[in-house]
Batch of 2 targets.
Target 1
Amino acid sequence: MSNRQIVVETLPTGELTEGHFKLKNAAMPEPDDGDVLLRTILMSIDAANRAWMQGATYRAAINPGDPMPTYAICEVMQSNSPRVAVGDIVGAEAVWTEYLTAPAHKVQKMPKVPRLENLLSVFGIAGLTAFHGLVGVGQPITGETLVVSAAAGSVGGFVGQIGKALGLRVVGIAGGPEKCAYATEELGFDACIDYRASGMFKALKAACPDGVDIYFDNVGGPILETTLALMNERGRVVCCGAISQYETDTPTGPRNLPGLVVTKRLRMEGFIVLDYVADNPKALRALQQWVQSGQIKTREDVVEGLENAPKALIGLLHGDNTGKRLVRVGGDPA
Amino acid sequence: MSNRQIVVETLPTGELTEGHFKLKNAAMPEPDDGDVLLRTILMSIDAANRAWMQGATYRAAINPGDPMPTYAICEVMQSNSPRVAVGDIVGAEAVWTEYLTAPAHKVQKMPKVPRLENLLSVFGIAGLTAFHGLVGVGQPITGETLVVSAAAGSVGGFVGQIGKALGLRVVGIAGGPEKCAYATEELGFDACIDYRASGMFKALKAACPDGVDIYFDNVGGPILETTLALMNERGRVVCCGAISQYETDTPTGPRNLPGLVVTKRLRMEGFIVLDYVADNPKALRALQQWVQSGQIKTREDVVEGLENAPKALIGLLHGDNTGKRLVRVGGDPA
């Protein structure tokens, strides 16, 4: 049996290209006592993959030759533990590979859902990141105005829909008219500003007549700088990502920082979804309720084939996805 | 009777000079019903005076021709209200002037203290700003490491001394060897880094072997950028001021923002002392206890004469004060 996997052959300093990756045939892994052998079905593709290539963060640095880490939905093929049975569908910290082993206590058994894709979108890291960031960090109050960047992306789309469900005015920022139309027409945002068009500041100001109380920031850079200028006193900036800064060697800081944080008494706070794991059951209950009521719509953007994972990540960094991006490595269980 | 006052004749765009101010003789104000007539004794000189000249913030913009706002300790000369008596010493939102009127309900009666100067330092805005910023925003835990910039300034000096009283490791940042010696030898900081010397990052890193848990930022700019790089996960940045950014038309943002806020899950939070007014009695009780025990030493840097207020502010912006800067406008009551 072959076990194809994709390694990071060299670390990028500027723009990420397919040349930084290499497809190779690895050995078929053997599960130890207490381990399970997993077959990868779906892998989550995230801007964070690129951030991890910049050095150690909340996880260890990726070194040349390492396979790319990911979170994946897998089928249990062999189990040396009573915790998990052959045929179970589990979520696991994995890598870009067809087969892997993991300690059984480190995989999460997944609930039955109509479509496995949902496990990596609304009921996965994207939905949980949106929920914990907006609710836990942003602390929204009905009637406030929320701005969210990368609005047609997976996290951004859920943030806006949760915001609407909680009674906020929701204004998105996205690249291009199609994505803006998707946010307003399909996801129900009150407005969505195209940052590629001219006059973004004016357009955003017009869309936020009462100012901005919460900015859910996925991008950093000039869009953060522009939105900060419209924040209300005691506003909150949920710092979820800085996608605009990942592919540059000369990052630019928002010139109004920290000045506006002082004069407007803003709170800027970073978080990762793992910080809020204790609140996951509450978050999942709320998300299920909103999916059932139709207040949250899910959309996945599935790229077929392990070999296309680099292309899927590079495309994501250029903003070519609408909805949660996944790579399908193998078929659903029969 | 004359009533000298100093107005902002033109708004600065770059460096503030004495030419931006004008001394003039204003009319002697007449207190209305419910008002008091006040004689200014001591005025607080703060970097915030310069920030207010950049446009509207938490207070209205200063316009050309306006006298400079300040907080002052005053003697009540005439009272048209039963709340306040002639001869009382009060604190008031004032301007750079010898005499002013104010609604009696807007002035604060001051407690008896050995030296009126203390009312504008440890028991005034500086001491309260240090307390509320460090305790309320920074949420310190004994054993953590605190870094504070403008360490020999008034707020910075109190922040560090409160930090020591609470059991923190305290590292200051200040300009020049004299100020650093003042922080360590007189105020009891564990270390103080001279930002004008070369190798600041290395020196700060060596002084913080366990990383930085709280950064009390009075300066913004490159010192913020450097300190952010040394923050621990879940660290807190207390955004109190951005003195490095007030005198430039081309402010620079820290290039590692918001990236490090995301990956380290930092919280950056601005505040002004007025937000915490409900906690002032608790703060003053703690400050009094520390002054009595000798854990907080106070030092005021008093410039004599209303006419020298512009010079006092300009000097402060260039860092030539040690301890809380005040201007004495009139003598203590007999």
Note: Residues 3-119+299-328 of chain B form a domain with the Quinone Oxidoreductase; Chain A, domain 1 fold (CATH 3.90.180.10).
Target 2
Amino acid sequence: MRNQNRPRHSQKVKSDFAIVFDLDGTLVDSVYEHVISWKRAFADEGLHVPGFMIHNKVGMSGRLMVRQVLRETRQRVSLKKMKAIEELHKSYFSRMLPLVGTLPGAQALLDRLSSVGVRWAIGTGGDRKAVAAQLKSLRIPDSVPVTTGDDVAEAKPEPEIFMVAAERLGVRITQSIIVGDSVWDLLAACRGKALGIGLLSGGYCSSDLERAGAYRVYKDPADLLTHLEELGLPAD
Amino acid sequence: MRNQNRPRHSQKVKSDFAIVFDLDGTLVDSVYEHVISWKRAFADEGLHVPGFMIHNKVGMSGRLMVRQVLRETRQRVSLKKMKAIEELHKSYFSRMLPLVGTLPGAQALLDRLSSVGVRWAIGTGGDRKAVAAQLKSLRIPDSVPVTTGDDVAEAKPEPEIFMVAAERLGVRITQSIIVGDSVWDLLAACRGKALGIGLLSGGYCSSDLERAGAYRVYKDPADLLTHLEELGLPAD
């Protein structure tokens, strides 16, 4: 008889640990498209925000990002305008989607985890529509839980997204490995008492990720794939 | 009688040291537009290059960038295709120029240096046409030397661009402060035995810039402006 707690995409669970992946900058190469889309959105509302100030906030929820950027640049706008900026970003980003591909090794890493019996899920702050569009470039089994910003009350750096994702795998967050490219992922991992792993593929540097609590930092999914044993996971 | 060694934009030279500024990511907010333009250019030629791999090479000459990216992603293309990628990048970048503004405090910093008698110049690897287009957003006195990639044989990280820029100010590179946002600027400063200063406004992190030899790292030109004394320069 089938164990209902086991994910359907893997018949043979070989590890007590599960992995929850962030999406943007971790599995798909979308961070720079987000930066430009946010920059355009702010500019349309008369706000000039330098790219680097946006970049180091990608991974936060859209709402938090806008509030933080406004505070940092000492600008104030109405709530209506803040919402308009969020909508503009979504619109600009959807137009850039053709440029967004998977990161090196992303598909191979996910396939390998499934085949060696390590449960995995995706937990991302993006809204359901944008996430669905980006997941088209990856082959994700229907059974893999995908938790988005629309599914939770508290966005990253709160750990709720990762916590819900782990629960859907039937694993506690404290038994999970969280893989992300931004300090917000690692802060969320830290708050959830999960093991945090950083990837450089979102453009953060290793020392920022390490200082934010990353146990290990790899270049991209391909590099992580060659180091599964370092995380105490079966590799084949 | 006028001292011909003194720059025309400042009647009163008060410091033996001069400053040579990089342009992209240092005075103008163009790094993320360069990343997207390169990504599009590579994609048009059938090469998928992740944004972060491009980002950490912005500041190199276009030719070096293309060669390095190809080696890193283990792809080979003809010389003709490499040149086509460079041209495509220029074309895409020129279309994104309306989004490129000055970085916070850039104009105020340059104006202050002129008024307190610190000589300064611009030394950038960009081609003359792109540089001229970007300088439109800044008020640069005609007398300020602007050295571009078209003026020298060896691009960054060779120190030639900065060396020529300093010479045009009548100052040796060893008596110059080089301000840049990338590790290539700092490697060039190091090779030229100049004092290197890093800015975070190109999206590199402080530890990468410090490890590449930055004497100090500031957030952006506005932050550098409030710390001129730290560099042993007159501030008012």
Note: Chain B touches chain A at residues 25, 29, 31-33, 35-36, 39-40, 43, 48, 50-52, 55-56, 73, 96, 99, 101, 103-104, 200-205, 207-208, 220 (CB under 8 Å).
